[in-house]
Every structure is written in structure tokens, then in C-alpha cells.
Design brief:
The complex is a heterodimer. Chain A has 24 helices and 14 strands. By secondary structure, chain A is of the alpha/beta class. Chain A folds into three domains: 204 residues, no CATH class; 236 residues, Rossmann fold; 33 residues, no CATH class. In chain A, α20 links the parallel β7 and β8. Chain A is extended, with a radius of gyration of 32 Å. The two termini of chain A are 50 Å apart. In chain B, β3 and β4 form a beta hairpin. The model of chain B has no long low-confidence stretch (mean pLDDT 88). The two termini of chain B are 33 Å apart. In chain B, the strands form three sheets. A five-stranded parallel β-sheet of chain B has the order 2-5-8-1-9, sandwiched between helices. Chain B has a two-stranded antiparallel sheet with strand order 3-4. A two-stranded antiparallel ribbon of chain B has the order 6-7. Chain B is globular, with a radius of gyration of 22 Å. Chain B is built from 15 helices and nine strands. Classes of the chains: A alpha/beta, B alpha/beta. At the A-B interface, α1, α18, β5, β6 and α24 of A face β3, α11 and α14 of B. β5 of chain A pairs antiparallel with β3 of chain B, so a sheet runs across the interface.
Chain lengths: 624, 308
């Protein structure tokens, strides 16, 4: 019903004539569908009265034990008031009001006995009076007090904010002896039971999630007690990353390496040099890692193979459930008991995060679908703008001198070149998602962003690969969440954030893999980052020094910037989508130059990425 | 020369000296008989005194115009109105990514005996003293537009290597349109922009939209005219806030819908055909339907809406 909420919001905004506010109320029917008429009314109240003062009133009323009932009654009063104000400007309102009245009576006949028992009889009666008046039905029998109350709820359309606030307060004061909370005599009387009214279904306060990316200025540490503990633990001075235990730990956490031992060795000897000489690389394909009965990784050592193949790999759901590592023969031999406990916890966290990513995605499905639509439409336009048409031969156009002889000799008039059908944009895009612990609190949003970007590109027939990177125990792990030729982007929601982030090595690894296998003319690497590289594996001492340096701050930023420069020299246009603390904006520009965009909310993604794409292609064109 | 066509200017209070200037401009260089069909007769008048005065003044001063602004600001309507008012033949050139110099200026072709030059729309417009409407000029590559530089600046000439040098008629004006808010379109480079007088087009105002509807449907009942006008602005606001795409706030679509209602289609169907169903996403359609539903009943017929 998330779509209905958005729909209700749109109706309110439209009626209010402005969009930049978050209404304190939205109206829904018991089946969850938006109540069109009452949402219009909510919007009109926003339009005609001072929103802040109205909100203050409802806040005060909200502190009452009978807040639901009071809300329902006051909204009936407001309904009459704004209806009278608006009817001249919007004649259709009379018809919509009649339809709403009919809906009230049809709803009443379908309510279950239990639902009827939950209604506040007074609210029910007041509504019945209102809607009977509107639809011309017979009035219900009323006591004298009820008749007076119904009359008092016909707030006239002549009231301004001051008047309507007074009317609301007087109504509650006269009929319920309502006082400001804390005052004597508060709600001492009143006939109605303190039960939720029917309007509670129709008119309810909403607390909605916000998409804003609030990223703490963390750097690989996590204090929420989840697998962020992994980062804490690895934060201890790391003596040597080149240990088999560490690799076994990484493999147990993320799955087997997708690259053969030989290729991995070549890659490491090329990349794990200089500042990264104590590091290792691990590349995981989540599809392979996730398959239940997978073969052993080519990089596994023969002594492990002797342990036999696994029925359930570390990525399989059963792995964690069954105790995972304990179920394996030999695979956990390199792990200490503490590591085994850690791994179980990480596996469970991964599963939990996958679930949370999917829940978030489903909850924002409409918004995400709309962003994908906007983004892919915009991408098509951008790509169209930067695709040269292939020349075609024809009878008119630019003369091809080398073929001119064909005209008199062969009477072949097709010796001209003119722009032909457009060429497909020769572009591929790789998304590199920072998956360190500092991204943990926004993991769902990042997973959704990755999927939005990938799906939009797929729709535009642009090859796209999605990698998530993190680092632990000196091993930089790249998880392939979507392969180049894979059509589905669903696995991107397997995104999980934990550990550290050695941005420089991750970018250089992505670069090295890319130049081996991707031969498109235009290659774009988009890094979704908070521009805060930080790793437990230290940097070697500076020349002449003896102390190893922390991989953080300026040296880490410089390492990342150097990797970006190298990637660009290799013809891979590298840019960033930044969502993080403004404290890191300086690092962002040092790493990526001018080629980055900052976003705060999910709905800014489309515009930001389009601008980045346009900028990148323009730059590419200028260079060529 | 018919005085009637200036009535719409006078109604809006456009200065008389500008109207006199238009008349002088037209009478100085009569249009050849064979080009008369190229003088457009606009379906809609442009309403907006300030914009009209600025545009007319710029043309009288020999400037080319770049009309910028978002969708539904009447850029093409204004261009067409100007050609009509000045009585000049119009050449329309729709710019797209495939536009190159030969498309604009002309190409070589074989006429059965020899390779000859076949003039393009810019060349023809320049020769004949026409108004060239360069629609969505920023959709083309800046390199392709470089051939226009000499035609647009003080040189007023088109020089094609290997062919004659074509002087641009003193009556020729180029009216470019550009929707810079449109995702993916390029910015015009400085060299080209500097050759135009830029006219930022405002979104049509409520009163002017009412006039436009009354022009086209003089018998529409005021109550429904006002509801259609407000519907347009509500859809526009929703698109500005990115809740829906900009397909729905379509002025042409709204006018088409009113026309269909007059032809006997019910209001619900007409608005669905001309506005709602131009969006192919079901959810977006539901948002548009909600806006319409809050303004226009679905079962209105021609007799309900017309007969004022």
C-alpha cells in the first residue's frame, strides 16, 4: 500500500497547491486505499489555514487520552469549513462530497461485528449526521446534546485560522471539558467510550520513513553491535595480511574466490605493490557463492580439497542455520573458535541485511520504479546526444572522392556519404559500491541505488557490472553483484556492508579486471562512496622512516586519488556518486576532481547521475 | 495588407510604433507568389504583451532570437506568430543529433548529368528573406552548428567551400527554440549563443490561457474554462515537483481534449485520450487521474461544456 500513501500525499499536495511539506494526516479507507475526498480536505486545510498553528492544535489534542476521537470530530468540523471555502473555486467538490457520503454508508454495511464494536459511537453518530445531510438520507435519531454537537461541527466557511482554532477549542471545551494538558478538569466528562473511532481507519497519523542519507562520519567502525564487531576486531594491529587464516576467514565470510589461483596470483603481483604490498585480493561472485552445491574454488588449496566438497557453502541459507562451519569438514580448520563464532554472526547478518534490503526495496517500489523510468528516459536522451550516426552511402551527401569514378564509369550514383542510422552508444558502465561498515546504516538505500542505476542502464542496453568492495584483515574483497551479461539486477540487493574500505586498491583492482575483459570505446566507472577510505592494513613507512602509517586521512585519500588517475589514464572514466558526511567533501574532490555528484535523497539520484553521465560523455567527446 | 491580424496585438496593448514597424518591414520586400504558402497562419495566437514587444523589437533591430524556456511556454507558437505577423515565409528545421552542415546548408547530389548542389533549408531561408525556425537547436552538436555562425552574425553570409557565397537577405531572421530544462540536452556554446538575442519565455499565465481557450472555443462555459485552466496549472505543478513526468501538462493535449468534448466524446474519455494515456505508466496515470478527478467530472458532454 506504499503506492496508496504516495497517492494520498499527491492528492493533499495538489489540493494545498504546494508540495514541500509533510502533512501530519493522511486519509485511508479500511482496505488501505486512499480516501480521495478526505485527502483533498486535508490539503484544503493546509491551503486555507496557517499550517503551523493547525499542527500545534493537533499536537496539543494529540496529548489527550482521547486524541483519536477528538481528531475525528475536529476533522468533521474542518471538512465543512473548507468545503464551503472551496466550493466556489472547485464546483466538482459537491459531487465528490456526495460520493464520499455514499461511500460512508456502503462502508458501514460491510463492517464486521468486531469493527462495529470498536467504533466510538459518538464519532459514528456525528459522521452519520454529516453524511446523511450531504446525501439527503434520513437523519439518525439524535439526543439534544448530539443535535447541538452536530450543529457545532458545521464550522462555517467564513472562518480564518484564528476563527477555526477558536471553534475547535470551544467545541472540545464545551462538549468534553477539554483543557490544555496539565490544566485542571481535563476531559472530566464526555459520553463516548475511549475507544478508537472508525475514522481512525480513515484518518490516521502517519510516520513515514525518510530516504535521507544520514551518514555518520564513521570510518569503518560500527557501534550497533551487529557484524560491525568484525570491523572492531580487525581494527587491532594487523601483523601480516598474508596469512592463510585470514584468507580462510574471508572465504568463510564471503565465499570462494571466483578467479583461478593463477589469475589471482598474477593480479596480486601486479596490484599488491607499493602502498598495498601487504594486502591481498579476493574476488567473489555472489551467484556462484550463493549456489547450494558449488564446486570448490579453483583457488582452494589441495589440502582443503582433501576435506571434501561442501554441501552448503557459506552463502547458502542453510549454512548459517546448520552451524555452517561446524558442518564443514576441514574448511574451518584454519579458523580459531573466535573466528568461527564471528563468521556465523557475519553470515547471519548478511542474511538479515538481504532481507532488509528487499523489504526496503518493496516498500519504496513505486518511488524506485519512477526513478528508474526517469533515469532510463534521461539516459536515452543523453546517450542519443552523444552517439555519432554512422555514415551511409547514398545518392546525396558528401562526395566520397575515392568512389567518384564509379559515377561515370559504372553509373553508380551511390558515391555520397550521409548520416545513417544511429550507432549504438559504445559505452559500458561499472558500478563500484563502497561496502564498508561506515555504509552499514544506509545499506538498504545503497542497495536500492545500485539496483536503480543498474536497471536503468540495462533498460538502455548499456552493459553494466556491479561490484561491492570492502576490506578486512588486509584482504580487499570485491563481490560481483551483477555480471556484465546478466540481465537481472536482483542480486544487487544481496549488498552487505561491513569491514573497512581500501578505496585505492579496490579501484585499481576494478580497473585491472576491466581492461582485461571490457573493450568498449567508452568505459565509465561509477563509485558510490562516502569518500572516506580507511583500512586496518597499514601503509609502509615513508622513505627513511621506520613507522608504518595508518591507512586513513590524507595518505589514504592520496592512494585513492592515485588509483582514480591511473584508471583514467587506462581510458576508464571514473566518477563518484557521493552520499556521506560533508566533512569528507574535501577528500571527495581530491580523489575524483570535479567528476562527482552529491546526493542526499533517493529521489535526487536520477538527476545527479544524468548530470554525471552528461559530463562524462562530454569530457570523453572533448578528449576524442 | 490585412489589418485584422494586428488586432490580437492591439487587444493586448502592444505599442503602435511596433505594429507600424512590422508593416514597414513587410512592405519593403514583398514575398514572391510561389512562397506565399510558406507564410504560416497560426492555429493559436500568442498571448503575452511583454514577450511580443520584446520579440518584435529584436526582429526590427535585425536580431536573431533564441527562445528559451520549459515545455508549454509557447516557443513555437510565438515563432509561428512572428512569421505570420511579419508576413515572411517560414522554414522549419527540427534539430536532432544527426543534423550536420549538409542537412542545414545543402548537399551534393547527382541530377543525372552532373553533381550539383541541392540547397538546404537554411540556404533557402537566407536567400528568400524568410524566417527560419530552428526548433530545439540545442539537440544538435555544436560542431554541426558552426556553419551557422557567419549567417547569424554581422557578416550575414553563407560561404560554402566549392560553391557560391550566399548572402543572407536583410529580411531573414532566425528564431531558435531551446528547452534547456530537458534532461540530456546540451548547452549551446558561447559562440552560438552570442549571436542571438535570448528571450526567456514564461509559462503561460492564467489569464492568457483563458484567452487562448476562448479564442479557440468561444462558446465554452466560463465555469468549465476556468476548471480546465486550473487543471493545466495543477498538472504543471505536479510535473515541476517531479511527481509525474512532463508529458501530462501538455497544453496541446488540453486543447485537443476540449475539442474532442465538443465533438461528442465525454470529458473523462477525452481527457484520458489527450492527457492521461500519454503516460504509459499505470501509477503515474493514477496520479494524473486524481488531479483531473478533483477538477472535471468524467461524464460531461458537449452540451454541458459548451453553449455559453
Amino acid at each position: 500500500m506504499r503506492g496508496e500513501q504516495r497517492r494520498a500525499l499527491n492528492t493533499i499536495w495538489n489540493a494545498a497547491g504546494r508540495y514541500q511539506f509533510d502533512p501530519p494526516f493522511m486519509a485511508f479507507f479500511p482496505d488501505g486505499s486512499a480516501d480521495f475526498y478526505f485527502n483533498l480536505i486535508i490539503g484544503f486545510v493546509e491551503k486555507w489555514f496557517d499550517p503551523e498553528r493547525m499542527e500545534t492544535l493537533f499536537e496539543r489534542v494529540g496529548r489527550s487520552a482521547r486524541a483519536d476521537e477528538f481528531d475525528d470530530l475536529l476533522w468533521l468540523g474542518l471538512e465543512n469549513c473548507v468545503y464551503e471555502k472551496e466550493i466556489g473555486e472547485r464546483p466538482i467538490l459537491a459531487q465528490l462530497r456526495r460520493e464520499r457520503a455514499e461511500k460512508f454508508f456502503s462502508l458501514g454495511s460491510t463492517l464486521s461485528r468486531q469493527q462495529m464494536m470498536l467504533q466510538s459511537m459518538l464519532t459514528q453518530t456525528m459522521q452519520e449526521v454529516r453524511w446523511a445531510e450531504v446525501s439527503g438520507r434520513r437523519m439518525p435519531p439524535l439526543s439534544g446534546r448530539e443535535r447541538r454537537m452536530a450543529g457545532a461541527l458545521r464550522f462555517p466557511g467564513s472562518l480564518d485560522t484564528e476563527g477555526v482554532l477558536l471553534a475547535c477549542q470551544q467545541f472540545l471545551s464545551v462538549y468534553f471539558r477539554w483543557r490544555e494538558p496539565g490544566e485542571k478538569g481535563e476531559e472530566a466528562g464526555g459520553q463516548a467510550e475511549n475507544v478508537p473511532g472508525i475514522l481512525r481507519h480513515l484518518l490516521r497519523r502517519e510516520t513515514r520513513q525518510t530516504d535521507s542519507l544520514v551518514i555518520r562520519a564513521g570510518t569503518g567502525q560500527c557501534g550497533d553491535g551487529s557484524s560491525g564487531a568484525l570491523a572492531h576486531r580487525t581494527g587491532i594491529l594487523h601483523r601480516s595480511a598474508r596469512t592463510e587464516q585470514d584468507l580462510a576467514y574471508v572465504e568463510a565470510c564471503f565465499g570462494p574466490c571466483a578467479v583461478s589461483e593463477h589469475d589471482l596470483g598474477v593480479l596480486e603481483s601486479e596490484l599488491c605493490v607499493g602502498d598495498d604490498k601487504d594486502c591481498r585480493i579476493w574476488i567473489v561472485n555472489t551467484r556462484q557463492a550463493g549456489s547450494a552445491a558449488r564446486a570448490l574454488s579453483p583457488s582452494r588449496r589441495p589440502d582443503r580439497e582433501a576435506g571434501g566438497s561442501r554441501e552448503n557453502g557459506p552463502d547458502s541459507p542453510d549454512f548459517a542455520k546448520e552451524g555452517g562451519l561446524e558442518a564443514e569438514d576441514g574448511a574451518d580448520q584454519d579458523l580459531s573458535p573466535q573466528d568461527r563464532r564471528d563468521v556465523r554472526r557475519v553470515r547471519a547478518d548478511m542474511e538479515r541485511q538481504k532481507g532488509k534490503n528487499r523489504v526496503f526495496y518493496d516498500a519504496h517500489r513505486q518511488e524506485i520504479a519512477s526513478t528508474i523510468r526517469r533515469l532510463s528516459a534521461g539516459m536515452n536522451t543523453v546517450l542519443e546526444s552523444y552517439a555519432w550516426p554512422l555514415p551511409e552511402e547514398g545518392r546525396a551527401g558528401q562526395l566520397e572522392p575515392e568512389k567518384a569514378y564509379r559515377l561515370p564509369v559504372l553509373q553508380d550514383p551511390d558515391v555520397f556519404l550521409h548520416p545513417g542510422n544511429e550507432k549504438e552508444p559504445d559505452l559500458s558502465v561499472e558500478l563500484l559500491l563502497d561496502a564498508s561498515a561506515s555504509r552499514q546504516r544506509n545499506a538498504e538505500v545503497i542497495a536500492a541505488q545500485g539496483r536503480i542505476l543498474a536497471e536503468s542502464l540495462v533498460r538502455c542496453h548499456i552493459p553494466v557490472r556491479v561490484l561491492a568492495f570492502c576490506s578486512l584483515r588486509g584482504v580487499t574483497v570485491l563481490r560481483i553483484l551483477k555480471e556484465w551479461k546478466e540481465f537481472s539486477c536482483a542480486r544487487i540487493l544481496d549488498y552487505y556492508a561491513g569491514g573497512w574500505n581500501r578505496d585505492g586498491l579496490a579501484i585499481r583492482t576494478a580497473d585491472a579486471l576491466r581492461i582485461r575483459e571490457d573493450h568498449h570505446a567508452r568505459r565509465l566507472l561509477l563509485v558510490l562512496t562516502d569518500a572516506s577510505p580507511n583500512d586496518s592494513a597499514k601503509l609502509p613507512p615513508v622513505s627513511g622512516g621506520v613507522l608504518r602509517r595508518e591507512y586513513e586521512g590524507a595518505p589514504a585519500v592520496e592512494a585513492a586519488a592515485s588509483a582514480v588517475r591511473a584508471a583514467r589514464e587506462d581510458g576508464i572514466h571514473t566518477a563518484a556518486v557521493f552520499a556521506g558526511s560533508t566533512a569528507h567533501l574535501g577528500s571527495l574532490s581530491r580523489i575524483y576532481g570535479k567528476e562527482y555528484v552529491c546526493i542526499r535523497k533517493l529521489d535526487q539520484l536520477a538527476a545527479a547521475v544524468l548530470e554525471l553521465l552528461r559530463m562524462t560523455l562530454q569530457e570523453n567527446e572533448n578528449r576524442s | 495588407m490585412s489589418e485584422e491580424k494586428f488586432d490580437v496585438l492591439r487587444q493586448q496593448g502592444v505599442r503602435e510604433e511596433l505594429i507600424a514597424g512590422i508593416k514597414r518591414y513587410s512592405s519593403d520586400a514583398p514575398v514572391p507568389e510561389e512562397l506565399l504558402p510558406r507564410i504560416p497562419v497560426p492555429e493559436y495566437h500568442y498571448y503575452g504583451k511583454e514577450v511580443l514587444e520584446k520579440a518584435i523589437s529584436a526582429i526590427l533591430c535585425g536580431k536573431n532570437l533564441l527562445l528559451t524556456g520549459p515545455k508549454a511556454t509557447g516557443k513555437n507558437v510565438l515563432a509561428e506568430n512572428l512569421s505570420y505577423l511579419f508576413g515572411r515565409p517560414q522554414w522549419d528545421v527540427s534539430f536532432h543529433i544527426g543534423v550536420d552542415a549538409s542537412y542545414l546548408i545543402g548537399t551534393d547530389t547527382y541530377d543525372g548529368r552532373a553533381v550539383t548542389f541541392r540547397p538546404g533549408p537554411i540556404t533557402l531561408c537566407a536567400r528568400e528573406g524568410g524566417f527560419g525556425v530552428l526548433d530545439e537547436i540545442n539537440m544538435a552538436r555544436n560542431e554541426a552548428l558552426a556553419v551557422l555562425h557567419s549567417a547569424l552574425d554581422f557578416r550575414r553570409v553563407i560561404d560554402i567551400p566549392g560553391y557560391e557565397r550566399i548572402p543572407v537577405s536583410p529580411k531573414t531572421r532566425f528564431l531558435a527554440t531551446m528547452n534547456y530544462g530537458y534532461a540530456g540536452t546540451r548547452d549551446l556554446n558561447e559562440a552560438l549563443t552570442s549571436r542571438f538575442a535570448v528571450l526567456e519565455m514564461p509559462v503561460i499565465g492564467e489569464d492568457n490561457l483563458k484567452r487562448l481557450i476562448m479564442d479557440k472555443f468561444p462558446d465554452i462555459k466560463p465555469v468549465f474554462r476556468d476548471q480546465f485552466v486550473r487543471l493545466f496549472f495543477e498538472l504543471n505543478r505536479k510535473a515541476e515537483n517531479a511527481e509525474i513526468s512532463d508529458r501530462a501538462p501538455d497544453l496541446r493535449g488540453l486543447l485537443d481534449a476540449i475539442q474532442l468534448i465538443r465533438a461528442g466524446v465525454t470529458s473523462g474519455d477525452a481527457l484520458a485520450m489527450c492527457i492521461t494515456d500519454k503516460t504509459f505508466d499505470a501509477y503515474e496515470r493514477s496520479l494524473i487521474t486524481d488531479v483531473i478527478r478533483s477538477r472535471i467530472p468524467t461524464d460531461l458532454t458537449s452540451t454541458d461544456v459548451f453553449g455559453a
